[in-house]
Amino acid sequence: MTANVLSRIFTIEIGDTPTLMFEAQSMREAQELCHEQWLKDDLAEAKSDGAPLWDGTAKLRARIARPDESAVFTEAKNNGQPFDGLMLVDLVKLDGGKTDEQPVDPGAFPPARSRNRPIKTNSPGEGRG
């Protein structure tokens, strides 16, 4: 998704834990991302302290990012490589190393992602996408 003046930064919480951030045009668009199977698969595969980020049952909820979270997202976006896809910035430290994941196609929202692509793991505040 190409960011523009109308984009807002949103946070996805897993249960009550703020887990990752991204940009969307509206709350509805942000909530739709919570229902995407590729995201659920990524969250179930990603681990923090040896445990999956998502157990498959905890509620995924999008909300407008808080100012401190927005600052982390903006810093990660400004320090990363130019990117036209959906940039996901982790708020939790992920286990493992970085991968060479291909960006999500920036076409129509919601973006589609192949299940076969490895997830990119980063330190909190680093973008993945």
Features:
22% helix, 129 residues, alpha+beta
General description of the model:
With 129 residues, this protein is of the alpha+beta class. It has one domain. Helices cover 22% and strands 22% of the residues. It has 3 helices and 7 strands. The strands form 2 sheets. It has a 5-stranded antiparallel beta sheet with strand order 5-1-2-6-7, sandwiched between helices. Strand 3 and strand 4 form a beta hairpin.
What low-confidence regions span 5 or more consecutive residues with pLDDT below 50? 99-103, 112-123
Helix percentage: 10-25%
Count of spatially separate domains = 1
How would a crystallographer describe the biggest sheet? 5 strands, antiparallel
Gross geometry: globular
Taking strands numbered 1, 2, ... along the chain, how are they ordered across the largest sheet? Answer: 5-1-2-6-7
The topology string of helices and strands comes to EEHHEEEHEE
Topology:
Elements (H helix, E strand, L loop, with lengths): L7 E7 L2 E8 L2 H7 L3 H9 L1 E2 L2 E2 L7 E5 L2 H13 L8 E3 L36 E2 L1
Antiparallel strand pairs: 1-2, 1-5, 2-6, 3-4, 6-7
Give a quick precis of the structure.
With 129 residues, this protein is α+β, with helices and mostly antiparallel strands. The protein has one domain.
